[in-house]
């Protein structure tokens, strides 16, 4: 290990370099040069200007797998918050290996670096660390310790270098092939391809280029795309496209005169769905003055509410409650209710935590436990989360604030949070899976909190925890927990990568088929001004790709009455948001629409349908691009035929109810005005080929990346 000790950390900031083994292999200590390779990589003692990057030259070529960043013994304003790591064989040609950030603490952090391409490892001679942001504003960057993990054994590096050389040659040939084909140098293109024996792209795309660009056989090109769609070659592109939301107001008692029964206005209630029977269950809540104990049933097919019970406490069920939790067992058609909110300064507060079960088939309430804490479960709590596992018939309860009587006179105890519990319904037994600090063994990968969201994935057997509040901190992390292996994984740590919504009463749902999590905001904090405001924002998290996408975002109006004529629900908190994964529909009910009116509540019921782009819709888009290309060529040679083609062949592919598509279609008539008929010439044919090539490039984007030609262009590499 080579080290440089600095005497004045505020003026100079050096790094300790260390190279360690990967998989137990021994590597020499001089794998890294002791001194920075470039003077730009260190602070200037004269100007005190921060460096642009830290440049490390490896003493030997190596495949770098991981990097560890050590830190100062305390929190420090110069600690790096965001940074990038690049690597490569040459100084001027590097690939980004990792992008992220570090937490502002004294604990070292290790990250996996990108070290493979096309299922082959690639080696590096240089590592460049680029700091982007420090934890303190207008402060220099300090990297206290860097440790690289990897392999430099000859039996690994030699074949890796050979593959890199071969890969570069192939990519160079592919760029040349692309350029020759674009320039219509057919003979040179065929000669190079025959000599090098390198394919520019997948044969399916080569055939498409021949039909569309070379021959102008538009009908055959459409048929080829139909075959590609049937073979699901376009499905990858479809899955990446944005989702279009459609809100529908199913009605509310305050919005219009409603025949029949309708639940009272409320917030802090619970809403569950029976996807098989298409039934919603609504229980409890706060109407602005008191807690409720009524149980309602909404039949989605008939669009009718029915009050099952006006007061469940009179039928062996729970007392009036709010901020409780309820979940549904779809197999046995049972509802489970746990917890409630109460003013802690009340001297007569009942600290016992009962667990109730309602059998929907028999319309009977059962008290499963008069005090879950005495039976090994959680204490009395509120703003927790609860999920049901139909396979194991288990109930999972996580987080929530524990209610403590003020008679204890212990202020610190009033901020106690509950851990992760499991309740096995057949055996009526509780078990503690994780304590309030994250784990029974003391690790903190799963901190307890309140006002968070939790969903259960029945296929992967994982719980997902999102956001919440712990003390004065608003959490913005995403953690998964495997109920089979008892392992937690931090997907978003809340520092280097966060969930997009930070605030109170976040509502989440999960689609096990699409493998996605939906997150609806309530009271949300802006990262810029750090103020809490009401917003309707719906985000989707793709578990497979680990990416967030915003579907809906609406800010609050100054007057809540201005939302009565809107076609989307007004911003709110303390609402309920459930998902029917069978029919792929969300339902939203009630909530509090204003922080300024303490007694105002809502009783509106909304349906949200998310429309994903289908394979058929993408195929129509492909056909439209091809026919649009043909129309523009006809406009140059035969305007009369172009008009007929526009009205018949092209118009049938346009959704004239869509404003954007209709506008694009109408603008095509400008091609007839701006162009004049002409005879074929070499310049015209060249322009037509260029236009066909542009359409081909658009169509190739719909195919998987590994099938298409390189996205780079040979001419872009010229420094002119």
Describe the structure in your own words:
Mean pLDDT is 83; it is low at 1-51, 407-413 and 439-443. The chain starts with 15 loop residues before the first strand and ends in a 20-residue tail after the last helix. The chain is built from 10 helices and 37 strands. The chain is globular. Strands 1, 2, 3, 4, 5, 8 and 9 form a 7-stranded mixed sheet that branches. Strands 29, 30, 31, 32, 33 and 34 form a 6-stranded antiparallel sheet that branches. It has a 4-stranded antiparallel sheet with strand order 10-37-36-35, with no helix packed on it. Helix content is 19%, strand content 33%. The longest helix has 29 residues, at 154-182. The chain has 4 domains: 16-152, Jelly Rolls, CATH 2.60.120; 201-240 and 614-717, no CATH class; 244-322 and 505-612, no CATH class; 342-354 and 361-476, no CATH class. It has 720 residues and is an alpha+beta fold.
